[in-house]
Design brief:
- The protein has 530 residues and is an alpha/beta fold.
- It folds into 4 domains: 13-136, Response regulator (Rossmann fold), CATH 3.40.50; 180-317; 341-450, Jelly Rolls (Sandwich); 458-513.
- The chain is built from 16 helices and 16 strands.
Amino acid sequence: MAEFGPRSLEKVVAFIGERDDQTRKELHQILTRAGVKMVSAQDNLPGLIALIGKIAPDLIMVGDDLDPKIFDFIRDIRHNKLGTNPFVLVTTLVAPERAEAVKRALQSGTDDIIVKPVKEDQLLQRLRRVTLNRQAFVVTSDYLGPDRRGKGRPSKIRRINVLNTMLEKASGQTVDAETMRVAVDNSMNEVLHGRLDSHGYRLSFVCDLIIGAYESKNVTPEVREKLLVLVDVLKDAARTAHRLKETELAILCGSLTKQVLAIADHYETPTDADMELLHKINKAVVAAVKPRASAEQLQQEAEEGAKAYQQRDREEFASGADIQRSANEPPVDMVDEPVIEILPLPKGKYLFRQGDPATAAYIVTSGVIAIYKEKDGQRLPIAKVRKGEFFGEMAIVDGTQRRASAFALEDSTLSLVAKDMIEQKMSDSDPLVRSVVQMLINSLRMVHDVYTPKSRHVSDSVREIKEQVATIVGYVESPTAPAGLKGEGASVAAQLKAVTDEMVNLIERHPDLDPRTPALPADQELPARP
């Protein structure tokens, strides 16, 4: 697209919002002469909002004085609360005497700012530049819009290349409603994940600031303000996790919101349990939100964030101010669940052992847990439990001891669902429901005694063969075996065992032969026998 002209812009849909009649008329004429056939100009914000509800524009041009809520309007578009395309190109026109409007426009997520009065050549040149060279978007806990960070400013925030219908139409492409919907959904999914990343980073460095204040005995009302900011971030993280269908994380963040609010009520005299909770949030929730980051990386990001914050103007950190919401946006309700405790479990540590009493069920928020049991002198792997999966509940429901052992294969974080919470939920349920659940538990217990998980990796298959061969060899060598098997049968069984052992050794020497993930923990992953 070399020029903005009648042929390149004829499919573009443009909306104008400007109070001044003469300016509004001039903007309409400029876009029409440039080739835009569908231009609609409004002198009030409600009229503009009504238009966006009917048609998806490719370009929106608004004056900063159109309405006192004009920047909330832009922010609502960006956060997908107005219209169907949160990534529409937005240009804000600012009067020269309203310098404060420039900062507010930037914070709202506008693409470009032009100072009035607007000349035709200047406007078309700026539109062409911002269309062809549009910045990738970034998302934080309070901002969604073009990346305007300085080159020298360190940041871990991801950049997202978003839909640009203005460019596509000006390039001659057809953008139908379904194509736009799919593109918006894909980009919004990235935005939500980016928002969770930002929450993880923010939770980490805000916790660092609070913990630092307590450890240095510098406890001022600002500590309470930071605790309330922590509450807002946790609330928003719960809502974002819910939209991404990460239910366990949403419940965890909702539960932590209550606990942090309680700390804020007596912030001057925190208990040991309060300090422990802040340390756990700093590690556990962040690990759940950013599972691919190492502990060292998360700690480094937290320290960089805390140091950067200390150099900023403190008034920008007012309670909840960084999470911008419109007046009509419903509040985030705290999850009505009992407190869920966080448990970090280092690699190589047992969570529980076969035969232990059951005190809780667990949700894996990060890491991997191996489940195995001992039977007839053999150690039988049952499963690998990963992020988002729930385990350990059956022993609580039927009141039995643990029938298997749980062991951390990686540094892991678990959310504990207390025994009394599950028992209370069960007692509150219908007696018929309780009976059905108990029957299902009994059936599953019997299945587990003979169940072998379906292989999904060559190592799983080889392990199953090895176990079957061990059963055959044991039978051939047993005193009860028929005499006909004692000679030739024992020799064949020994050969079979040798071939199987060699297969196991081959797989262990070349673990990358199969790119799939094993369903079962390997023998060498499990703890050494005492």
